[in-house]
Amino acid sequence: MRKSWVVVVAAALVLSLALAGCAKKAASSQEAISNTRTMQTLQEKVNYLVAQAKAFYSSREYQQAIDVAQYILARLDNTSAQAKDILGKAKEQLAAALTKASGSAVNKINVFGK
Length: 114
Description:
Helices cover 82% and strands 0% of the residues. It is mainly alpha-helical. The N and C termini lie far apart (84 Å).
């Protein structure tokens, strides 16, 4: 009885450590992709990278989210609905940020020229 309890506790500890490692956002899309080299299954890689792309998106690192989502679609799972969704949303947000930045630059130039 005690032996099975120890096995259950050890398994829970290993699982919690694995999940905690996956929850940490990588510093870059390249680091996230590199981290998948130690993963065994394709699904494990896709799940990890989707989580990373979501983390990049949430922290407004849209280009990093785009890079990860494109990697998933090009190299791992070209049908991933989650990767397609993140890719579309991140592209929209990046385009909006660029439009806002270019409009702001034009306004500053116009003010400077007066």
